[in-house]
Design brief:
- This protein is of the alpha+beta class.
- It has one domain: Aminopeptidase (3-Layer(aba) Sandwich).
- It is built from seven helices and eight strands.
- A hairpin with a 2-residue loop joins β7 and β8.
- The chain starts with 8 loop residues before the first strand and ends in a 9-residue tail after the last helix.
- InterPro entries: Acyl_CoA_acyltransferase (IPR016181), GNAT_dom (IPR000182), Ribosomal_N-acetyltransferase (IPR051908).
- This is GNAT family protein.
């Protein structure tokens, strides 16, 4: 069980990979175009209101965290086109062995099942390759799209954390959803024709994609 970086994970046309220097123009364009779409769900720094980190700072921080084994920050691409990001972090070791998942996706790509696939792909890696014992996601109760994601992944609801995360300029309540390695193990190691296993294989069986390619 080891952390490997840089890391690339694949499920057919869906590829998760590290953020690169040459991604700057596309990344900045995605964030600008999706500002209003993402604003209600983006974490914010209460000490630096209205000042999100720029691309260079974000990439350097992500790379540093990844090389230290503190996070697995990846961009979501489809047919080579960047559409969002997914990050497992912070990663906690020792007696906890826990990872927290967070993500964002381009509005035009939402509702196509990409986020559940990306999350399932990363969760299989965290459990099988990195030996994590627990993966959790926190979701604002108002975020119906993310509630659908955790439902598709069969994450177990654990309750409400009051004022858990500073989001969109204020401390917001979040529902907590989680899965343990024992729960993931009950899914089994069955492989499907698309190459998925465990959580991803179950997602493929229960929610087979009708159209893989983006227009």
């Amino acid at each position: 069980m080891v952390h490997v970086w840089p890391l690339t994970l694949r499920d057919e046309e869906l590829v998760l990979r590290p953020l690169r220097r040459r991604d700057r123009f596309v990344h900045e364009g995605l964030r600008a175009r999706n500002h209003e779409w993402l604003r209600p769900w983006d974490a914010t720094d209460p000490t630096r209101p209205g000042r999100p980190p720029g691309f260079t700072a974000l990439r350097r921080w992500s790379e540093s965290q990844a090389r230290q084994g503190l996070a697995v920050p990846l961009v979501i691409t489809v047919d080579g086109r960047m559409l969002g990001q997914i990050t497992a972090g912070p990663l906690q070791y020792g007696a906890l062995r826990t990872a927290v998942l967070g993500y964002w996706i381009d509005e035009g790509a939402a509702g196509r099942g990409l986020v559940p696939r990306a999350a399932a792909l990363l969760m299989d890696h965290l459990f099988v390759e990195m030996g994590m014992h627990r993966v959790e996601m926190t979701v604002r109760p108002e975020n119906t799209a993310s509630l659908r994601v955790v439902e598709k992944l069969h994450l177990r609801e654990e309750g409400l954390r009051r004022g858990a995360i500073h989001v969109d300029g204020a401390w917001r309540d979040h529902l907590v959803f989680a899965m343990t390695a024992e729960e993931a193990g009950e899914i089994g190691e069955e492989h499907d024709p698309r190459g998925g296993k465990g959580i991803l294989a179950r997602l493929h069986r229960e929610h087979p994609p009708h159209v893989r390619r983006l227009a």
